[in-house]
Amino acid sequence: MNEAQQSAAELPNLVSTDPAAAATAVDALSEDTSAARELTSDVIWRTAESLPWIGPQLHAVSVLARSIDDVASDALGPLIDVAGTIDLDSFAPRDGAIDLSPFIEMQDAAAVAADGTRQAAASLAAVDRTALVGAVRSPFDEASSLLDGVAVATESLANASVLLPRMLGADGPRDYLVIVQNNAEWRSLGGNPGAMVLIHTENGAMTLTEQDTASGVGSSSDPILPIDDELMSITGASPGMWFQNVTQATDFATAAQLANEFWARKYGTPVDGVISIDPIALSYLLSATGPVTLQTGDVLDEANAAQLLLNEVYLRYADNEQHDAFFAGSAAAVFDSVSSGAAQPGPLLEALARAGEEHHLLIWSAHSDDQAVLDGTTLQGGLPVTDASATRFGVYVNDGTGSKMDYYARLNTTVGWCGALADGRDAAALRVTIKNDAPVDAETSLSPYIHGDGIFGVPPGTARTVAYIYLPKGAMVVSSHASGSRTIDTATHAGRDVISWSVDLPPGGSASFDVVVATAATPILDVVRTPTLYANETEDISISCEFA
């Protein structure tokens, strides 16, 4: 089994970014898994599985062998056969258009691969690991995690093979509103969507047809669309009244429909979908395209994109329209580079996959069949889902300063299981920490546009943050504690209890919110959170309920 695991280690990345290159890895894997399956399937082995202590160990090994062999021999086989006939370079634009036939040709095989790997991953998840000794459990957990990665990769490829041809106009022309979120001014889904471009697609060709800004699209004296009463109790009417605040909504479907309506009010025609990106996603794309030169003469590359777009532009220009124009021009330049074929297909697919996994790329479609493909993926930008396999909190942060101070802000989350409660229920804990790393002399060293100039009654240099903390569905608060809080409110949204926590932090200041909840234990404990400029990792450690 060790050889099989080593052969499989590269599969998640290869399947999602270079299916043809995965063929060699799968051939090697299939030989190893077939041998392992044969070894663990004879009568003696099966009989021994019923014995005390040793039985669960042997059963786990045999399930593992069968599952990985099913994936290598059956699930990935058809996909590899199709992928072997496709040159990765065929995904690059030629004469201004992408050849969509390779995506269409692999749809059926990709669906088979996704279904097979999903079933194999489920078989491993069903094994009771509590009876396994360390020498068995450790490699079993490692292989299970690996298979989960292959399942995600094949699911992503299957979705892409269906969705991309539709979005690129295979069945008729489409128009997509691309909003660029500004992570220097936090919103629940990333940042203030100050700039936007309209992309027209038809038969694989992409054309930029319009550019605008949030201030150019305008505002509404009343919510431009009805907002769910529960969401309204958390965010107020703000997401429906100002385009800059549509992403204050905590699920992207709501934010995108509000953005679509704002756009339609000005231009008269709704779009086929809304795509959200941010400077971090642009930096990933630039890693694939190489540097691009802007109309200002600036050279935008992977290393400087976030700093230039989220901070330096505000030191250089004093006017908001100039900021938005710089943002929109940068997005347009990266789009032109991608659509012209400057990016290598492999690195480009890797960049898009990374942006999607980290929530820096979100997609909503006005077409229900397309939206169904997005259901359950990170691209959908939905609320955190708790089920038998995972318990998930949600942490969404919003700027309350009216500034770009969040370039200096840090959001950290820590989760952990903290044992059983007296009544037998399991307890999970979450700690949310926010820190203001702005310079001590922020009031004088930063521009008024960055520090807010006290526009909402917040002292210059202080960062005000409003956090919406979504508890796992069905969870009950055991204890909670906040440091440095201004206000704490509670509400309910889509079956989840929500705690709103507001805090003001001067330069160098930090504050934390801790909560322990009673909920059923699951293999995974995680946080869905606002994608910020800095690493979006959640620390998972063993902690005590005492900390809250």
List keywords for this structure.
548 residues, alpha+beta, 20 helices
Please explain how this structure is put together:
This protein has 548 residues and is α+β, with helices and mostly antiparallel strands. It has 20 helices and 17 strands. The strands form 4 sheets. Strands 3-2-1-4-7 form a 5-stranded mixed beta sheet, with helices on both faces. It has a 5-stranded mixed beta sheet with strand order 13-14-11-8-16, covered by helices on one side. The protein has a 5-stranded mixed beta sheet with strand order 12-15-10-9-17, with no helix packed on it. The two termini are 43 Å apart. The mean pLDDT is 86.
Count of β-strands: 17
Level of helix content? Answer: 40-55%
Strand arrangement in the largest pleated sheet: 3-2-1-4-7
Percent of sequence in beta strands: 15-25%
The main pleated sheet reads as: 5 strands, mixed
Anisotropy-based shape: globular
Mean pLDDT: 86
Main structural class: alpha+beta
How big is the Rg? 25 Å
> Termini distance?
43 Å
Number of separate helices: 20
Low-confidence stretches: none
